[in-house]
Amino acid sequence: MSTFGTLFRVTTYGESHCASVGAIIDGCPPGLALSAADVQVQLSRRRPGQSNLTTPRDEKDLVQLQSGIEHGVTLGTPIGLFVKNEDQRPHDYSETDMYPRPSHADYTYLQKYGVKASSGGGRSSARETIGRVAAGAIAEKYLRQAYGIEIVAFVSSVGKVRIPSSVASQNGDEDNDDAEDILSLEYAKLLKTVTRQDVDANPTRCPHAETSERMIERIVRAKDANDSIGGTVTCVIRNVPSGLGEPVFDKFEAKLGHAMLSIPATKAFEIGSGFRGTEVPGSRHNDAFVRKANGTLGTATNWSGGVQGGITNGEDIYFRIGFKSPATISQAQSTAQYDGTPGSLAARGRHDPCVVPRAVPIVESMAALVVMDELLLQHSRKTSAALLPAITTLPPTMVLPREAEKSA
Ligand SMILES: Cc1cc2nc3c(=O)[nH]c(=O)nc-3n(C[C@H](O)[C@H](O)[C@H](O)COP(=O)(O)O)c2cc1C
């Protein structure tokens, strides 16, 4: 369905070639200073036509806030917002209408609904993500102001070009599982320090300049061959309090995975050490507890990616998402029409040769929506529990003293 979240609820609407796309955001705390400019920053990072690495569809994607805000302050009532679709060219698709695009959503949408949008990807188009990005920007502003939470995503690979092993180590020697760190110290440092400014310094949104150059070559090679290429986006969320996540079905990483895999073109999600964590023994993988400089308990390493038992532990949360090579390519492909007649499709229209540079703000926004919703849920639990008298009848190991509580 088109609604995400429990207490911070976002409903998006719109198709690729309809009049507008947008969202209703319900549950935003009242009293948040908010202007269109706060939302526009992320929409402009998402918009098409930013460089020759993305689709030439020229949309300014200027947001119009409709409700829920007066004199620059949220009222706590639903926030309605939209962006006009301006550079539509539905006729680009007319010749190809006989064919469901291989690996796109044309066939499945028609099978499911029995009717589909006449052109473009309809609801499956990445235009839909505008509503999410706008909502995520609002959530992010609250998270930054209330908790100092920072969310930074970046492109970590394009095709086989990835941030190199000196920065992000890969496991090599299969007989010696003690030999290498799951993730190198340099990579851990990158996750600790990377900023949006670093990310936006390169058109690929890979903060490692040398790798970015090689990524550009890879994307241009795909484009010149009328083809496309995939990639990965890594995201880190800093300063998240412990205690977020709703076991057992709504564990924090399950909600993150849900959010990320709802982004078009995603094929994979891993948190913390992810698949690499399966290659080392527990003695290397465990995150030992230590007293931190500020006196609180934390972990010496963070292969868990900031989540244990489906609940945040106060360490940085980091995860990686795999995006497939976009389906629509102008290279001729042997395929079949809707009625099964074999043929060749060379898709027309304007398309992204690689989606990851534009996916970065979408990933950040979905991360913000998850953190925001989980924070509000934990807040309601904590606030209601705090109204009760302190627990004095249980053994001390069973109860967290109120003064020691550092979660939301
Ligand atoms: C930022 C972004 C841009 C995209 N641009 C295109 C595109 O130009 N052409 C295309 O075929 N798919 C594009 N996609 C992917 C499609 O929306 C998506 O792959 C398609 O609807 C099929 O759904 P699925 O891949 O999630 O199964 C894009 C995705 C994102 C996140």
Structure in words:
Its EC number is 4.2.3.5. Pfam families: Chorismate_synt. One of its GO terms (molecular function) is FMN binding. This protein is of the alpha+beta class and 408 residues long. The chain has one domain: Chorismate synthase, AroC fold, CATH 3.60.150.10. The chain has helices spanning 36-46, 106-113, 129-147, 185-193, 196-200, 209-224, 252-261, 282-285, 356-386, and strands spanning 3-4, 9-13, 20-26, 63-65, 69-70, 73-74, 79-84, 150-158, 161-162, 231-238, 266-271, 289-291, 297-299, 307-308, 311-312, 317-323, 333-336, 342-345. The strands form six sheets. Strands 1-2-3-7-4 form a five-stranded antiparallel sheet, covered by helices on one side. A five-stranded antiparallel sheet has the order 9-8-10-16-11. Helix 1 (36-46) crosses helix 3 and helix 7 runs antiparallel to helix 9. It is globular. Flavin mononucleotide (FMN) binds next to helix 9.
Keywords summarizing the entry:
single chain, 408 residues, alpha+beta, Chorismate synthase, AroC fold, five-stranded antiparallel beta sheet, 18 strands, 19% strand, binds flavin mononucleotide, chorismate synthase activity, Chorismate_synth_AroC_sf
Summarize the structure.
This protein is α+β, with helices and mostly antiparallel strands and 408 residues long. It contains nine helices and 18 strands.
List the helices and strands and how they pair.
Layout: E1 3-4, E2 9-13, E3 20-26, H1 36-46, E4 63-65, E5 69-70, E6 73-74, E7 79-84, H2 106-113, H3 129-147, E8 150-158, E9 161-162, H4 185-193, H5 196-200, H6 209-224, E10 231-238, H7 252-261, E11 266-271, H8 282-285, E12 289-291, E13 297-299, E14 307-308, E15 311-312, E16 317-323, E17 333-336, E18 342-345, H9 356-386
Antiparallel strand pairs: 1-2, 2-3, 3-7, 4-7, 5-6, 8-9, 8-10, 10-16, 11-16, 12-13, 14-15, 17-18
Bound molecules: flavin mononucleotide (FMN).
Residues 55, 104-105, 121, 124-126, 263-265, 324, 326-328, 351-352, 355, 358-359, 362 line the site of flavin mononucleotide.
